[in-house]
Specification:
Helix content: 25-40%
Distance between the termini: 68 Å
Radius of gyration: 29 Å
Largest sheet: 8 strands, mixed
Strand order of the largest sheet: 5-6-9-1-10-11-12-13
Strand content: 15-25%
Number of strands: 15
Shape: elongated
Order of helices and strands: EHEEEEEEEEHEEHEEEEHHHHHHHHHHHH
Structural class: alpha+beta
Number of helices: 15
């Protein structure tokens, strides 16, 4: 049978705050000693009372505005009750029926077109502690608890069951992460556990049929894993039903190595958590003036910036997506354009998406936008060669660099004089007779070798395009 998938996504994101959600403990960093960022409140000790983190609330309200969601006049905190070793109080402070934002949406682009994913709710809650499973020297297994993460502010975003395939789920998660990073709400690094994606997957016989048995898929630690895990789970459920079996509502983990999901535990419904209003926290009124001030601080959002780059700067949709896909790259692009408005947007975009992103993926770099613009302009005007420009960018990425001063003091200006290039090409050809023999034998790549040798002889200052034309003419004349 041809089954139709129904998918909803739940994403938990650690917010970018200085302290935890309900206490003044600092946010733990990678490498911190276990159980050193704790206090009576986040340890759940008797008598300790929570105090809401204003910055966390403002960030969720900002996210809500960015996704077109509505904020309530008054929100409320609730206790979500369940027992697990990493939950010190035996309950989690969360939000049930009065979240900070609801009824939003995000549009994503897939291989089959644009899709709209409805967002049911976005709410705040506190994170749990972290379990660490180890094996002792005698072979016995034990589980240790690190409470450093307990109480960290978490944003949970829940979609409507609008997704129908793994690709759309992946694009949604990627777009949400980009939005969160753009507005400064979160770093959302999946590899560090700052963003955790869970998918609720079911299948049905047709689009009009009732929803099938829902299975929650967890432990997806990359966007690629999200797409693969959902695709596998859809196939698995179809095979079970086609064979006459039945599905169980459960939580399943994703095993990246085997490319399969596996049973973890039976899945609870919301009533199993026995929610009730948090008695230690009063309801929170959302003042319209407060909300308006938060919305006023929002930067240009990713979808609007992509559209502007295409419409106003004549960039391709691909170029716009690459630039906007990394907030730091978009920031450098905007700052460089502001420093030198006459600079061609396409040329600048190529340098940002090429040289800058190549370096920035490996290390944190700080680039002076004005000097970067001057460098790109010098290459575009053929004042210096592209090779020289790339070498100077490497220096710029390592530390401050005055482009105009460096070009002058080092004599880096590009050789564009036709007679000088003609002489340089002739010398190169005379010095490499084997290249001429290769050319005569039909090896077209010989010209690339000769251009490279000419550029080397000119210390990168030659005009590579002109050299190529001259060398081709000399080779053809030589037979």
């Amino acid at each position: 049978m041809s089954w139709k998938a129904v998918i909803g996504i739940e994403i938990h994101v650690q917010l970018r705050t200085q302290t935890k959600m309900f206490c003044a403990c600092a946010i733990p960093a990678e490498g911190d000693e276990p159980n050193t960022k704790t206090c009576p409140t986040c340890l759940g000790l008797p008598g300790a009372l929570p105090t809401p983190n204003r910055a966390a609330i403002e960030k969720v309200l900002a996210v809500g505005s960015a996704i077109g969601a509505k904020a309530p006049a008054t929100t409320r905190w609730d206790r979500k009750n369940y027992f697990y070793p990493d939950l010190p109080k035996g309950y989690q402070i969360s939000q049930l029926d009065l979240p900070l934002a609801e009824h939003g949406k995000i549009e994503v682009t897939t291989s089959t077109g644009t899709r709209t994913v409805g967002i049911r709710r976005a709410h705040l809650e506190e994170d749990t502690a972290r379990l660490r499973h180890e094996k002792a020297r005698d072979g016995a297994r034990s589980s240790l608890v690190d409470y450093n993460r307990s109480g960290v502010a978490l944003l949970e975003i829940v979609t409507e069951p609008d997704i129908r395939d793994g690709e759309t789920a992946r694009r949604y998660a990627e777009e949400l992460r980009l939005l969160l990073r753009t507005i400064g709400a979160a770093d959302a690094e999946m590899e560090n556990g700052q963003m955790r994606v869970e998918a609720n997957v079911s299948i049905r016989a047709s689009e009009d049929a009732p929803f099938g048995t829902r299975v929650e898929v967890k432990n997806m630690n990359s966007f690629r894993a999200v797409e693969r895990a959902i695709a596998f789970e859809i196939t698995r459920q179809a095979e079970v039903l086609d064979a006459g079996g039945t599905l169980t509502q459960e939580s399943r983990g994703w095993d990246e190595g085997s490319g399969t999901t596996y049973t973890m535990r039976a899945k609870e419904d919301s009533h199993d958590y026995r929610y009730f209003p948090e008695p230690d926290l009063p309801p929170l009124a959302i003042d319209p003036a407060w909300l308006a001030a938060i919305v006023a601080t929002l930067p240009e959002l990713p979808h609007a910036r992509r559209a502007r780059y295409v419409a106003e700067l004549a960039l391709s949709e691909y170029d716009a997506a690459v630039l906007v896909g990394e907030p730091a790259a978009a920031g450098l692009f905007e700052a460089a354009r502001a420093a030198l408005p006459s600079l061609d947007a396409k040329i600048l975009a190529n340098w940002v998406s090429g040289e800058y992103l190549r370096v920035a993926r490996d290390r944190v770099v700080t680039i002076d936008a004005a000097q970067f613009a001057a460098l790109v302009a010098a290459v575009a005007a053929k004042e210096i060669s592209g090779t020289t420009g790339k070498a100077l960018f490497e220096e710029m990425a390592a530390g401050p660099l005055d482009i105009r001063q460096v070009i002058t003091s080092r004599g880096l200006s590009q050789i564009s004089d036709g007679a000088a290039l003609e002489a340089l090409a002739a010398e190169t050809l005379a010095a490499h007779p084997q290249a001429l023999a290769d050319w005569r034998a039909g090896k077209q790549q010989a010209i690339g070798f000769l251009v490279g040798q000419s550029m080397k002889a000119s210390k990168g200052r030659g005009d590579a395009a002109q050299l190529g034309e001259i060398l081709r003419r000399l080779l053809e004349a030589a037979g």
